[in-house]
Structure formats: structure tokens, C-alpha cells
Specification:
With 159 residues, this protein is an alpha/beta fold. It has a single domain, classed as Rossmann fold (3-Layer(aba) Sandwich). The protein contains six helices and five strands; from the N terminus they run E-H-E-H-E-H-E-H-E-H-H. It has a five-stranded parallel sheet, sandwiched between helices. Helix 1 links the parallel strand 1 and strand 2. The chain is globular and about 45 Å long. It starts with a strand and ends with a helix.
Length: 159
Amino acid sequence: MRVAVYPGSFDPITNGHLDIIKRGAKVFDKVIVAVLVNVDKKYLFESSERVELIKRVTRDIENVEIRSFDGLLVNFLKECKTNIILKGLRTASDFEYEFQMAFINKELDDDTETVCMMSSAKNIHISSSTVKQVARFGGDISGLVPNEIISDIMSRINL
């Protein structure tokens, strides 16, 4: 069974993330969406909330599992009994960052492999940061995130 781990903050999950999850689920037998817990970072949603939001928008994808993790990704991979990291790339700067991270992960565990998927053209401009910024200024985020979570984002932004 080929299992890939798709790690990220997903704060919040975007249509770009969801696209990578759906496409990854067609390539791999199982995709584990790994929601990063970083106590040093300020998030819009707590990790448990991010897990629930992702579960809500992926409920119809049978071979997707959502989990949170902290610590080194290579250790989480071992826990998941896989060596494959799935990453989405939007821009050249994403590539440069993920290229470096792939080498770091390979240095930490030589069995680790990173598989990158190019973003779909319709999602190349979407990032969680952009979603939050647009929402904070009252803009329409309906084309940026799954419809099921728009109210969650807007109510959190407007606290």
C-alpha cells in the first residue's frame, strides 16, 4: 500500500490544498493530511479545529485520513509507516523552499521521498495567508476556500 503524508498548517484549508488532496488520493492508496501543531506560531484555528474543518471538506474522499502532529515530519512518517511526503507547488519560491526541505528530510532519514504536485492553474494564487487577509478586509473568499467552511472563517475573523 502506497501511503503519502501531506503536511501543512492548513490555517485554513484552501481550494488549492483540497485540490492536492483529491489528486493525491488518486495517485496514492492513502493520503494522510498531517496538520502541523507549532506552539510558537499563532493560528486562526487551533489544530483540533483545523483537523475538523479538513475532515468536513474531505468526508467524501474514502482514502484520506486527517491527523495532527508536532515534531519532526520524518518521525511522523515512521509513525504512519510510510516514507512519502506529498507537497503542492504554486510558484518558484514554493519549489525553492520545498527543494531545501526535501534535502533536510532526506538528511534526517535517507528513505524519505518527497513527491511534488503542481498546483492547478485555477488555484495558483491561493494561500491561507491571502484567504485570511481578504476575509479580514471583508472580501469574498468563496472562490478561495471550500464553501462548507466559509462561515467558520468569517465568524473567526470577525470575533
